[in-house]
Amino acid sequence: MAEHEHHWESSWAPLVLVVGIVLAIPLTFASYFQYENALVSALFAGVGVPLMLIGLAKWVDEGLDQTHLHFGYAVPGISVFIVSEVFIFLGIFSGYWMMRLEADSWPPAGTPHMSMVLPVIMTVILVSSSFTIHVAEEKLEDGDEAGFRKMLMVTIALALIFFSCTMYEYSHLVHEGFGPSTNSYSTAFYSITGFHASHVLVGASIFVAILIPALGGRINKTFVQCGSIYWHFVDIVWFFVVSQIYFW
Fold first, then answer.
1. Of 143, 174, 185, 221, which residue has the fewest beta carbons closer than 10 angstroms?
2. For 10, which DSSP code?
3. Any alpha helices (H) in the chain, and if so which ranges?
4. Closest Cα partner for 135 from 144, 126, 123?
């Protein structure tokens, strides 16, 4: 057992995953938006996304094979990770608050009327998804694996609907000429909502990574718990996003 555990700890999956994330997210976005080089951006994404998926799939597969082990540091680890995420969001919000409080008028000229209906709908969707993943956990604890899979699929569907609402709003606003560089509000709007949307997409990907093996009967309760904690964090952050960006 010690050999098997050591073999898992020496996995190459985390390194490949991290390299993929770096290539697929910061370097891809920097190449496209900062340096306006679509070719380099496509190259980074083309290499980074497959590496990210391969690393994630391998790491999850290895973890599912270790169901006899106690992942004592997993939940504290995801908690520490979330704390670090909180400080990142706090830094972004702090920049927004400084612009907002120092501005003579807000929102600046060039900002179209922002619908309040869609953010409310998106809030209902995200809150519902937190409820469904909680129910999924309860069903798993009760031994109802079929019910767990169903509620997990509902959670994924709600997450993707939420993400689609964000993309719909972006498309509508860009069509009206309101892009990331229109004014200070647009920069903050796309930065904050986009950063949150990326977390929604990551959360949905985590649930997919849990669902695929679960369809074959391979379920790790620690993975599910950590994914659920992360998702509740994404839900809570949205309340700050929607209150500050849309309603203040």
1. 143
2. T
3. 2-9, 13-22, 28-29, 38-64, 74-102, 117-141, 145-175, 184-214, 221-241
4. 144
Residue 110: predicted pLDDT:
84
Length of the chain: 248
Q: Position of tokens 């400084």? A: 98
- What torsion do the CA atoms of 79, 80, 86, 89 make, to the nearest 10 degrees? -120
Q: Give the contacts of 193 (CB within 8 A, at least 6 positions apart).
A: 166, 241, 245
Angle, in degrees to the nearest 10, between helices 117-141 and 221-241? 160
Q: What is the pLDDT along the chain (248 residues), one digit of tens a residue?
A: 444 444 446 788 889 988 998 888 889 988 887 888 989 999 999 999 999 889 988 888 887 776 555 566 778 888 899 999 999 999 999 999 999 998 888 888 888 888 899 999 999 999 999 999 999 999 999 999 999 999 999 999 999 999 999 999 999 999 999 998 889 999 999 999 999 999 999 899 899 989 999 999 888 888 899 999 999 999 999 999 999 999 88
The two tokens of residue 243 are 């209150």
Q: How far is CA 154 from CA 135, 140, 157, 193, 197, in A?
A: 11, 15, 5, 23, 18
Q: Longest C-alpha distance within the chain, in Å?
A: 66
The backbone torsions φ and ψ at residue 71, rounded to the nearest 5 degrees and listed phi first, read -85, 75
CB 152 within 8 A of CB 219: no
CB atoms within 10 A of CB 105: 6
Measured between alpha carbons, how far is 163 from 199 in angstroms, rounded to an integer? 10
